[in-house]
Amino acid sequence: MNYSSAFIPTLREVPSDAVIASHRLMFRAGLLRKLANGLFAYLPLGLRSFRKVEQIIREEMNAVGALEIKPTVVIPGELWKESGRWDAMGESLLRVKNRLDNDFVVSPTAEEAFTAIVRDELSSYRQLPLSLYQINTKFRDEIRPRYGVMRGREFIMKDAYSWHADEKSLDETYQAMGRAYRRIFKRCGLSVIPVKADSGAMGGSGSEEFMVESEIGDNTLILCKKCDYAANVEKAGCAPDFTPRTIEEAKAAAERTEGSHTPPFEKIETPNVKTIDELCAFLKMESTQFIKTLIYRAVNVELDLSSAPGCAKLERKKPAPDAPAVYPEVFFAAAIRGDLDVNEVKLAAALKASEVSLAADTDVVRLTNAPVGFAGPVGLTALPLIIDHTVTAMNDAVTGALAKDLHYQHTAYGRDFEGWLTVDVRTVKAGDRCSLCGGELYTKMGNELGHIFKLGYKYTRSMNVSYLDENGKSQTPTMGCYGIGLDRTLASVIEEHHDEAGVIWPASVAPYHVIIVPIKYDGEVKDSADKLTAELTQLGIEVLLDDRNERPGVKFNDADLTGIPWRVVIGDKGLSQSTPQVEIKYRREKENRNIELEKAAAELAKNIREEIAALNKPIG
Amino acid sequence: MNYSSAFIPTLREVPSDAVIASHRLMFRAGLLRKLANGLFAYLPLGLRSFRKVEQIIREEMNAVGALEIKPTVVIPGELWKESGRWDAMGESLLRVKNRLDNDFVVSPTAEEAFTAIVRDELSSYRQLPLSLYQINTKFRDEIRPRYGVMRGREFIMKDAYSWHADEKSLDETYQAMGRAYRRIFKRCGLSVIPVKADSGAMGGSGSEEFMVESEIGDNTLILCKKCDYAANVEKAGCAPDFTPRTIEEAKAAAERTEGSHTPPFEKIETPNVKTIDELCAFLKMESTQFIKTLIYRAVNVELDLSSAPGCAKLERKKPAPDAPAVYPEVFFAAAIRGDLDVNEVKLAAALKASEVSLAADTDVVRLTNAPVGFAGPVGLTALPLIIDHTVTAMNDAVTGALAKDLHYQHTAYGRDFEGWLTVDVRTVKAGDRCSLCGGELYTKMGNELGHIFKLGYKYTRSMNVSYLDENGKSQTPTMGCYGIGLDRTLASVIEEHHDEAGVIWPASVAPYHVIIVPIKYDGEVKDSADKLTAELTQLGIEVLLDDRNERPGVKFNDADLTGIPWRVVIGDKGLSQSTPQVEIKYRREKENRNIELEKAAAELAKNIREEIAALNKPIG
User: Which of A180, A207, A397, B11 is the most buried (most CB within 10 A)?
Assistant: First the structure.
């Protein structure tokens, strides 16, 4: 392809709204243009790389036996009403009415469409397992699209869905998809961090996210310096830095008469002291000696609260006919060691609640009979108390005393208070220890590129999918889903592979493998450039020939900016050597070297094939 | 690919709403399923063929230098407002509002999006000509979608757009696109009828449609039995079967005193006679001796009517600020020889009207002072009279007399009446003569698969696209557009290539090239089938191996239904020969033949390559 015919409008200036490298470089290198906020057009160079990512994903999906199909992008709203997501999805779902007043959605994902197709065709257990996928347009009406295609409104997603007769079969496909995902990202040259939802329980995980490190990541990741432990902070655990105790052990320790024991708890005046930091300063104690007690409001709680303090009068309701009964609103207290924070996602999971957030001040005052800042576990009876495991190890602690400007000291778990539920709700942070190997944990910000997930029966039940098993009995299949965002994957390749001068494409997803830069595209130089282009093309190497009548500096800058892996410079000086020479340079390196023109095609082809082979090499 | 893993749900029964072969067979052969009215999902087998059509189109577009890009499917409404199509397009345009109340459209075509991209990047004449295309999802909210993907709501279209400095450059790209379209359809195995909008003027055509014959076609085509003349009936012309005359010639002939002349016209009573047929029977004359006069209502007439009869008081209006001034509503009379019909599309073109239709009865009565059925050119002053060329040759004709139950006989053009405008508004029909070669014309029903069109300045002007020419002067580029419907193309392949038993794929777009049918997939038969599969795959041949535990009859039926070009049957009997034999059969032929197993792979590969090579062979 001749550069002058390739429509590569590179830019010197940076778009004003582009704060991350991939966004800047996709515009500057002429890969992408903006149609509207969150809507982008891939230009020819960008689309070439995009298609390579797409093809890698397609090959790996096919390799694990998934079959590609193509439903529509615009999906009947009826299917979304069947699954319940028409109501459950918020405003990010783009809903459309057509001229006949029928409801449609512009697909953000396609569980409903795929399940509807399979429902009509599935009859026998012999058809299972079945994995189908598409690589197709999706739309999410982001309130604040930004970072270019990293968070756009319209994007392309590979979404696969699988159906199974049993959990074992689902797990096999789920594991195979996980391996395929690792290969996909490796082939694209990406370092991903696979994050299991429940990293502690090996093999039992039902969800794994594939993250890349990113300064603007949506997710905080907890990683171990010694082993490959990686978790989303929302679900991360850590090795205990305390000795957990049963309530009996704690009580016995507080009450024993020989050796050390805990004095009876007593009130202390703490005027105008509300936060843990203020309390530490006022009492000259470490934050680990305090118990922090927070009041939370939980929504749609599925947990049985019939025996919980303060919950006797609460009633359960069904939000939908097929849904389980829940308590619409419940307040909880959560107690944790003073140096730690409560993780609301963990707390919500423990309560089986759809949402958990700090209670409003008025609710705190009502439930604790004290201003905000003086909640404590001792004497708290108006609501259920959730105890983090750290608290079970505390024998002599300071806590709020449920009254203004008053705390208790010498409180002891087991002797002075006990919890209604004891769980892990601790937010893990950098410096904590890995629960697998004891190594030091650290944090990274991450962006999710892919997600594999055991859906279970959510869609197959709500949409009435069934098949006949070996005994002719009707059964409901279980289901998995597996997504990858293509635009985000491509942008992440650039995030990981660039320098000041531009993109540095891995050969597997480079728009072209070689850029040939004739110093002046004329005479013998032109002939040599054309000949080398033909030789490389013959070898299956994709060549961009910079035939423009521009200064060499302009061409070199564009070669660096567009990030083509190998650059060949052809000039009169090199060609006039006794054996004609050209200069070759690997984009990733600073040095260039001369090589005989006659040997250039073979050498370049070998290097490119080796790089791609290394990227494609199976993971050990 | 093993059949049992390929998700090919073939059907014995025919979907009740499937009236055409492609619709029936796409469902029966497991290529397609319905999600909702006009919305379809391609299953794995259908998608494989679909992707091959897509790849053929992509290759031919790239070959003519068009560059693939990928804008979004959901396009900002603002762009459509700029071009004026937001208002001009009817309800088939799917309009969406998002959560921020911004307007969007789900693209039916993409002139606006492409023009917006080019507008921002185009600066110099050196960038022209430029051709860009996409192969992407489109949506048209058809009131009555039917015939499967032949007329669906969502579909995939290849749409290309080009920009040029001058008409000559546009014409070069337009011609190249036309040649590419011929190659695309030939490679897909399709017989298309290229229909020029204005077939008479060679090289001056600005629009060409690529039609396939179809019983349910939207278009009536006029074709010549002797030459390659083909036109849409809306625009078709024919050789005159009369001698056209100027008004002076006609008048002189009617009034000459020596030899034959036309007697003075006179009233004749024609009680209860209204139609031409009734009149022929009543007067015992041929329909060619009558002048048929019809009253039409035209909307948005651009033609200057300041000197036209009955139009003195009409006022022009501008429907939009940038649009030319038009008369919102005008009535016309059109006179034509009695055996012919007026073509409303031709009439609208002659009047530069956006729409022409027969006037309501009340308007006819008001304008002719007579009941419907008695309009005639003599004495008609209330409105402009349009004369078809055929009328100029009529010297002694019967016409309506503008009064109930009365006609005139012996009327003569030039002597008794003249027209305000004399044009060709004749509807050409089977049996008329070709204007190019005099051959007999015949008709076919056709469906449009592709369309190439010289857009001119419509979008570049309304959207303010400009570039600097050689002299640094700002210019507006001219533009072409070129579309192909992929779904319709695929369905048309099946329409043209099928029989009672199923699809008969051309090798170029077959989902697989070979289906191997082991009589029983077991023992030596299985080993031979697996080995042959491996050999063929090694040769680049795509194989579907029917590994199912089904009766041979079931497998043979499915092989015929799915239409894989070559079937190989492997059984114990053939394998037990001194040199083991298998049976091969070309789907298009009735006979099968035995061939040595050892030679089967090479022979099949040769046949398939030859078929594809013949389809790919350049058009002379």
Answer: A397
**Which residues of chain B have a CB within 8 Å of the CB of A78?**
36
Could you say which of B5, B98, B116 has the minimum Cβ distance to residue A65? B5
Whether A438 contacts A239, CB under 8 Å: yes
- Structure confidence at residue B225 (pLDDT): 95
- Mapping DSSP to helix (H, G, I), strand (E, B) and coil, where does residue A167 land? helix
Distance CA(A217)–CA(A444), nearest Å, equals 9
CB A485 within 8 A of CB A501: no
Residues B429-455 have pLDDT tens digits of 999 999 999 999 999 999 999 999 999
Cα–Cα distance between B566 and A570 in angstroms, integer? 51
Quote ipTM for the complex: 0.89
The whole-angstrom distance between A460's CA and the closest CA on chain B is 17
* Length of chain B, in residues: 620
Q: Which of A5, A33, A53, A74 to mutate to test the interface with B (most CBs of B within 10 A)?
A: A74
Give the β-pairing of A385-388 and A327-337.
parallel
Q: What is the pTM of this model?
A: 0.89
- Rounded to an integer, what is the distance from CA A26 to the centroid of its chain? 22
Closest CA to B293 of B378, B185, B403, B392: B378
CB-side exposure of A319: number of CA atoms within 13 Å? 14
Distances (CA, A) of B119 to A28, A133, B113, B173, B465: 17, 37, 10, 20, 5
Within 8 A by CB and 6+ apart from A572, the residues are A519, A520, A524, A525
Per-residue tokens: A419:
């919890």
Give the closest residue to A426 by CA, choosing from A236, A211, A169: A236
What crossing angle do the helices spanning A44-63 and A167-187 adopt, rounded to 10°? 150
Question: CA separation (Å) from A197 to A185, A217, A327, B591?
Answer: 19, 17, 26, 60
CA atoms of A338 and B609, how far apart (whole Å)? 76
DSSP B151: B
The shortest C-alpha distance from A42 to chain B (Å) reads 5
Report the pLDDT value the prediction gives residue B5, as an integer from 0 to 100: 96
What is the number of other CB atoms lying within 10 angstroms of the CB of residue A95?
18
What averages of pLDDT result for each successive group of 10 residues across chain B (620 residues)?
A: 97 89 97 96 98 98 98 96 88 92 96 97 96 98 92 97 97 97 98 75 66 90 93 90 90 80 90 86 92 95 92 86 84 96 92 92 95 94 95 93 94 94 94 94 95 93 95 96 98 97 98 98 98 98 97 97 98 96 97 97 98 90
Phi, psi of A609 (to 5 degrees): -65, -40
Q: Give the ranges where A220-343 is alpha helix by DSSP (H).
A: 247-255, 276-283
A35: closest CA of chain B, how far (Å): 7
pLDDT at A419: 94
Dist CA B440 CA B448 (whole Å) = 24
pLDDT beneath 70: ranges in chain A: 197-205, 320-322, 620
Task: Extract the tokens encoding A454.
Answer: 């055991």
> Which token pair is A135?
């690589």
Contact flag B6-A67 (C-beta cutoff 8 Å): yes
Distance CA B38, CA B89 (A): 20
Amino acid (1-letter code) at residue B166? D
Q: Which neighbouring-strand residues pair with A133?
A: A68, A160
- B117 vs A67: CB contact, 8 Å cut-off? no
Q: Say if CB A421 and CB A333 are below 8 A apart.
A: no
In this prediction, residue B553 carries a pLDDT of 97
Which residue of B71, B99, B141 is in closest CB contact with A141? B99
In the beta sheet, which residues pair with residue B294? B334
Question: What's the confidence (pLDDT) of residue B15?
Answer: 83
Tell whether A106 is within 8 A of chain B (Cβ).
yes
Give start and end residues of each alpha helix (H) in B463-571: 486-496, 523-538, 552-562
Q: Are B391 and B305 in contact (CB under 8 A)?
A: no
